Amino acid sequence: MAQVYNWQLGRRMEFPFEEHHPQWQFAFVFNINRCIGCQTCTMACKSTWTFSKGQEYMWWNNVESKPFGGYPQHWDAKLLAMLEEVNPSGQVWNAARKDPQKSPYGVFQGLTIFEAARRRVGPEGSQVALGYLPSDAEWRAPNIHEDTPQATIFNRDGQFGGEARLPEHRVWFFHLARICNHCTYPACLAACPRQAIYKRPEDGVVLIDQSRCRGYRKCVEGCPYKKALYRPTTRTSEKCVACYPRLEGRDPEITPDGVPVETRCMSACVGKIRLQGLVKIAEDGTWAKDPTNPLYFLIRERRVALPLYPQFGTEPNGFYIPPRWVPRGYLVQMFGPGVDHALEQYCCPDRELLAVLQLFRAQRHIIFRFAIEKGPKVAEVPVVLPSGKEVVQEIYNDTVIGFNKLGKEVVRITIEEPTFERPKELHLNAI
Description:
By secondary structure, the protein is an alpha+beta fold. The protein has helices at 40-49, 75-86, 113-117, 187-191, 218-222, 244-247, 264-267, 294-301, 328-335, 339-347, 351-356; strands spanning 2-6, 11-15, 24-31, 62-66, 93-94, 107-108, 174-178, 197-199, 206-208, 228-231, 236-239, 274-280, 306-307, 318-321, 369-373, 377-384, 390-396, 399-403, 409-414.
């Protein structure tokens, strides 16, 4: 196997192919604190891409309720258990060895799915990436245990007890929206014996060549996020394509000027939890420094958005702002050791971060650059951080401006939501 550098792990790791990176990388940030689990994104994707015969159990976008939900059921718990079996008590992080560019979360000292596969030979034979094939029953429900909370304390009447004050709730659950992460080192690509899966050089989107696929389902087995799915009617695998015609700006109705726009799941999001875009990739495979790109700012500058299960080793390009009320241990195993820093940033954002957070789902065009026009101070709010430290948040009514690929202004938002009063001469204002 080749040795490639994974900045999310802070070290080099084993991968079947040499490093080869795209010019731009499709990436996204989901703010879990805002997700209400309405499934509008799920149905937007379903009605666009997976409505045909043989795709009944295909959910390229799904929203699952944690800690009990998952599609397929228990996809993450099963793989975490397999990794622990191969490397008992060794799946740990060294959070002290941090470098802002090379290892922002520290160094992962455990085994990735590629490294663990070489130590294990199961009933399915040797594997390129450690994984498993879910059963038909596990694929049957896209969100089992929806809105089912976790709790450890009960009162005498058998009801949930404890307090509901931050930073952690005694009773909790949260919604985890998921699409394909279009990983830098995709396990589906690595596992495919037909080399039917490839990563587009122009935007890093991972696609399956249907003419080469023979339906071996090695991609389904290898993908740790289980976002490659098998279609029995065609005997081939399919997956999220990141709505690449929209990324290319090829929809004459939506983008007559040819600029990239958001995917279907993004543009349908009711809770405005999503921010999607493209980041420039440098020649060495790292993200080219661009603090005016909202994704680069949130992920690399402020590190408020974290990758999902970075320890798997695929370097996913989907990032999440963690939910602030969930026990820290659960979040750390899901998002890595950067959780405390991310929540401290999110719970009391400074004026620049607060402005960028307004860009979520603010415009259908993909925002490549933002600028901030400073405004007056409008409030001072006392805040207790998750660490227990008390601070005063100063809020300014700044204006954040978003620009598309052509450098055209496409959105302008103030921190304070404006109030409009209808003229009484034209409208009946009484209820």
